[in-house]
Amino acid sequence: MTQSELFYRFGVALVLGILVGLERQYSGEAEHHFGGIRTFAFISLLGCASAMIATEYAVWFFPLAFIGLAAMVLASYVATSEKGDVGLTTEITSLLVFLCGALVYWGYLELGAALAVIVTLFLSLKVKLHTLAARISQEDILATLKFAIITVIVLPILPNRTYGPLDVLNPYNIWLMVVFISGINFIGYVLVKVLGSQHGIGLTGLLGGLVSSTAVTLSFSQRSQKEPVLGRDFALAITVASTTMFLRVLFEAYVLNQVLAYSLFVPLLAAAGVGLAACLYLWFSSRSRERGEVSASNPFELGPAIQFGLLFAVILFVSKAAQVYLGDAGVYLSSVLAGLTDVDAITLSMARLAGADVSYAVAARAVTLAALSNTVVKGGIAISLGSASLRRYILPIFGAVLVVGVATAFLLVG
Predict the structure, then answer these.
(1) Which DSSP state fits 163?
(2) Which of 6, 107, 151, 362 is 20 to 30 A distant from 381 in Cα terms?
(3) CA distances in angstroms from 132 to 129, 145, 219, 341, listed in the order given
(4) What DSSP string describes 227-266?
(5) How many CB atoms lie within 10 A of CB 40?
(6) Which of 70-79, 174-183, 243-252 is predicted least confidently?
(7) What is the pLDDT of residues 269-316, one digit of tens each?
(8) Which residues, 6 or more positions from 288, have their beta carbon under 8 angstroms from its beta carbon?
(9) Other C-beta atoms within 10 Å of 84: how many?
């Protein structure tokens, strides 16, 4: 190792120690524990130097240095615990920083830096993480663990081959899609838990769109009957949720089939663009900033997950059968019908069939029609259950989205 490289690695170790130490100093932990910005910088340098000495001269020096540091950490913990502070966060962090310094010397610079950044991030998110833990119920934990265990056990043992008369149903791929869509739902669910159930109306629509844009539409349509003066605000939440749905579908397609996603860019982004323009108009013209509520259930429930898997399998089979016996028109018909209840399942199905059993253009039009069909359903909910003030905004907005979506799907996708 050259001298410049040696100095570089010690410099990186020093910076990582300072990074963690700054967070501890800023949070006020240095006043109650042994570690602040200087201490953590020294600990990281100690780890780097111990790794060098162990590598070049005496292999026993590194474990000895680690044990010595652990002894000092233990002594500090005993002293602080006698004062009533029994937290171990800073003490454990010091040991991790020591190891980060060692990893940097041994050439794992990216790993050492990543660990230091992650440690700093978790330390700085103390209040948020505690708030999240307080908002998670025992039922949430049990449902999440149940689904995670079954997924880990079931997915690897499912046969990865196709079955059925049309040779299209693959148990492994079906369950993999269940895991994929549940993961996306879980992101929205965690955001609701972290940020709380009360938010500004625009954020309500955004978070609701990640969980269920139909649920947002139903909730605010019903509320508009009781609070008609807020019709514009409720229309904003519904429009934001529906616009988020188009972007979510595009993301799902991109993850599973990038070629299909490229074909979907124009129609979905065009429809989303109309929705976004409407959102901006409603936002800047709205006088009130009423607060809304997002109601979300834990997406890691086994029952709904199995139902989605069955729905995905049925749509996959029906889409294939419709294409075989009815041609492209059958695919479009099955997509419109599927979109009445769920957009994710038909999106995942088309992502599997596109390029093999269905052309990319037909698959892109089918996904777009499903999204627009779902938009019609939400429009119907708003019209039938919403107040006149809500309908005044939703009708032209959803109408423009439908016209632009259909036009771009059949005129520009080829």
Answers:
(1) B
(2) 362
(3) 5, 17, 24, 31
(4) -GGGHHHHHHHHHHHHHHHHHHHHHHHHHH-HHHHHHHHH
(5) 29
(6) 174-183
(7) 998 999 899 988 888 876 555 445 545 555 556 676 677 677 767 766
(8) 229, 230, 233
(9) 6
